[in-house]
Amino acid sequence: MIVNPWRFAAAFLVLVAPSICAAVEPTVLTFEGAAPGAPPAGFAAALTGRGRPVQWRVVADEGALGGRALAETSADSTDYRFPLAVYEQLSAKDVEVSIHFRPVSGRVDQAAGIAVRLADADNYYVVRANALEDNVNLYRVVRGNRQQITGTRARVASNAWHTLTLRAEGERLTVSFDGQPLFAATDRTFASAGKIGLWTKADSVTHFDKVTVTPLP
Questions:
Q1: For 154, which of 29, 33, 113, 182 is 20 to 30 Å away at the CA?
Q2: Which is it for the CA torsion 144, 31, 88, 26, positive or negative?
Q3: Is the pLDDT assigned to residue 217 strictly greater than 60?
């Protein structure tokens, strides 16, 4: 396990949506206004598995909000390599996280994922969508060992924008893709609060332009 504890200094925009019926307000993270090539503020880089250190950078993308997205740009083809961008400003047990992403390239994988209840780079839940395999799978990562909980076939088109959502509430994990419910599962492995993060695999270059984080009451 390789962890890069460097902290990012570039600016990113935080938008807060109006509250509804006293529910906890969501935080919406975008990368508008950040300079291409800069690392994103508020995140720390980490790595599950093997391979070169990860490189999360703001990139230009005309289809992204404000023309800016976030990508892991190293394109290391090591198969058991899972880069993480860990959001450091929040720790939560029950949370819903939604990401807007576009798979751009990758020969080994073209993946985008959400990590929740992240204790460290070797212990967390993750749901990921894969454009080369056309599926969405839910995993637990325990001591660096990725174990599939469940999954399903889903059309994940390359070079198209998609939305992936993971809701963790108690022992129940619920996944939606492009606005449609896919599946739910029950798992008791991680029962404590943890960080949330963005996740890719191997040589995936995936653009993320919006992350919505809603702690659940």
A1: 29
A2: negative
A3: yes
